[in-house]
Design brief:
- The structure is a single chain.
- The chain is an alpha/beta fold.
- The chain contains eleven helices and ten strands.
- The protein has a single domain, classed as Aldolase class I (TIM Barrel, Alpha-Beta Barrel), CATH 3.20.20.
- Strand 2 and strand 3 form a beta hairpin.
- The longest helix has 18 residues.
- Ligand PBG binds next to helix 6.
């Protein structure tokens, strides 16, 4: 082959990649601060921010510090937070009683944040796992080999109403019980909370990547219930059609926003859901996805800033209208600075 070989090409896609300005002009997906929802962990008391070992840069915050963090998030343009309580293990029992306590930690946190930063949208999980001694998302049957669907839904309905009363804008059922979205919608409406929305964890997979989150809220399953797997309610990671069945059910039951979780390993599902519904689609870049990037960056094996950006861009490109991510504040801060 000679050195001056020439192809006779009409199409040369590289033309549009030649300069930074051309590349900017043809960029199809752009991240903005309003794309992000920040998950935050709240604890009782006055203790200093408590670092979560498997999630570098993420802390459990007392209510005062939580309010400060929410103000900071609002300042950089993050429109929403998802609040997760870490309970004192002594308060947990096998039916998750604290979930129905009007004065529960997360409800006090919601009231404090609403008061201090009223424009910020607040989400809370509707599921029993932070409250049960066994760490499951619902109540167990007598044989301890199943989560009782309908009894659990009965509790979740009450829990959602308490959250709405505290000022939550979007309740987020994350339990994967059958029929819970419709039941929660009815309960909210009956209690007069017709304006409280539902972001359904619609396609929530039984993922190993939730590990760091379970460290954060202390919901790793107790020894006595090891036999009972979350696989009995969360989706099998192998199943794509089943994810569409779940999202469609939540859609018709009245969910306002449909969520796919995890995000980065489930981009095909995000795309499927995007094409199956006209409603907004959310994706949750979960604790393990965050931990993976942080860990590799700490080892010097991956570039944190670039991987953070690329991981979120991919989720949005797949079809997510909004992303729950532990990178929310840093990303919004960088995007505002034009970087
Ligand atoms: C609770 C819940 C979980 C997450 C959010 N809500 C964990 C689980 O189902 O065990 C995981 C979030 C994350 O890993 O970042 N139902």
């Amino acid at each position: 082959m000679s050195d001056n070989f020439k192809l006779d090409l009409a199409q040369r896609p590289r033309r549009l990649r030649r300069t930074a300005s051309l590349r900017a002009m043809v960029e199809e997906t752009v991240l903005r601060p309003a794309d992000f929802i920040a998950p935050l962990f709240v604890v009782e008391g006055r203790a200093a921010p408590d670092p979560i070992k498997s999630m570098p840069g993420v802390f459990r915050l007392n209510i005062r510090d939580l309010v400060k963090e929410c103000r900071a998030l609002q300042k950089v343009g993050v429109p929403a937070v998802a609040l997760f309580p870490k309970l004192d293990p002594k308060l947990k029992d096998d039916v998750g009683s604290q979930a129905l306590n009007e004065d529960a930690l997360v409800l006090r946190a919601v009231r404090a944040v609403k008061k201090a930063v009223p424009e910020l949208t607040i989400l809370t999980d509707v599921a029993l796992d932070p409250y049960t001694s066994h760490g499951h998302d619902g109540v167990l049957n007598e044989a301890l080999d199943d989560v009782e669907n309908d009894r659990t839904v009965g509790l979740l309905m009450k829990m959602a109403v308490l959250q709405a009363r505290a000022g939550v804008d979007l309740v987020a059922p994350s339990d994967m019980m059958d029929g819970r979205v419709g039941a929660i919608r009815q309960a909210l409406d009956a209690a007069g909370y017709t304006g409280t929305g539902i972001m359904a964890y619609a396609a929530k997979f039984n993922s190993a990547y939730y590990g760091p989150f379970r460290d954060a809220v202390g919901s790793a399953q107790a020894a006595g219930t090891r036999l009972l797997s979350k696989a009995t309610y969360q989706l099998n990671p192998a199943n794509r059609r089943e994810a569409l069945i779940e999202t469609q059910l939540d859609d018709v039951e009245g969910a306002d926003i449909l969520m796919v979780k995890p995000a980065g390993l489930y981009l095909d599902i995000i795309r499927d859901v995007r094409e199956a519904t006209r409603k907004p689609v959310a994706a949750y870049q979960i604790s393990g996805e965050y931990a993976q990037i942080q860990a590799a960056a700490q080892l010097g094996w991956l570039d944190l800033a670039r991987c953070r950006h690329e991981s979120l861009l991919a989720i949005k490109r797949a079809g997510a209208d909004m992303i729950l991510t532990y990178f929310a504040k840093e990303m919004a801060t960088l995007l505002r600075a034009g970087r």
